[in-house]
Amino acid sequence: MAKKEYIVQVTAREELGKGYNRRLRAGGKVPGVFYNGKGENFAFTIDEAVLSKTLRDMGRTQVFSLKVESDGETKSMPAIIWQVEHHPYKKKVNHVDIYGIDPHKKLRVDVPIELQGTPPGRKEGGILEIFHDSVTVECLPMDIPHTIPIDVSGLEVGMHVHMEDLVFPENVEPFYEENFTILNMTAKRGLAATGETGGEEGEEAEAAEGEAAEAEAE
After folding, report:
1. What CATH number corresponds to the domain at position 129?
2. Which tens digit of pLDDT belongs to each residue from 3-36?
3. Which of 28, 24, 29, 36 is nearest to 10 (CA)?
């Protein structure tokens, strides 16, 4: 199934500075910067509503056609959203970086994880701890996945998921140096401290308590 084609339109700008950027934001615009591997870069503005809708519809890993208006002319180039800076407490975007890509050259990008299923460990009183909400992959721009799914339907208390446990789409290679932990299902501290011990360990504990009681009685 072919990916949907997206078009994002921006307007090149020459004026820079914090004061100018504040005025842009007050007027419903978001300042941004475009750059690529060839050393080309320019500043631009994009309508805040358009950017918000774009991020909702295609996420941050989708290749799109960037249309740039400058001096009455419009040029187009393939690109991806590279970095988004959000306001510290308002639901607004302060700044956006867009990266111009070569469709035939591999990229190294961060892709968000997507949890699938309900972990049975939650019914046991466990807590799902997520240490990384994205992972780094290397692939051609058109092969960048929207998300990396992680099936947690078999995750019980004490179990964890490492980088090497993930399944990646065809033509997408994970990039990592250490097999770090993505997430785990841990027991609540209260349950871990007061929980009953079962099996052979429980029997041994009960026997030890019985022997101690007999010794005190003697």
Report:
1. 2.170.120.20
2. 677 889 898 887 788 887 888 888 888 999 999 8
3. 29
- Residues 64-82 pLDDT 10s: 999 988 777 888 899 999 8
d(CA 90, CA 93): 9
Indicate the residue type of 174. Answer: P
CATH number at residue 36: 2.40.240.10
49 with 127, same domain: the answer is no
- The two beta strands, 64-70 and 7-13, are parallel
CA dist 82 to 25, 193, 214, Å?
20, 45, 70
pTM of the complete model = 0.72
3 state SS of 176: coil
CA-based nearest residue to 45, from 81, 86, 12, 91: 12
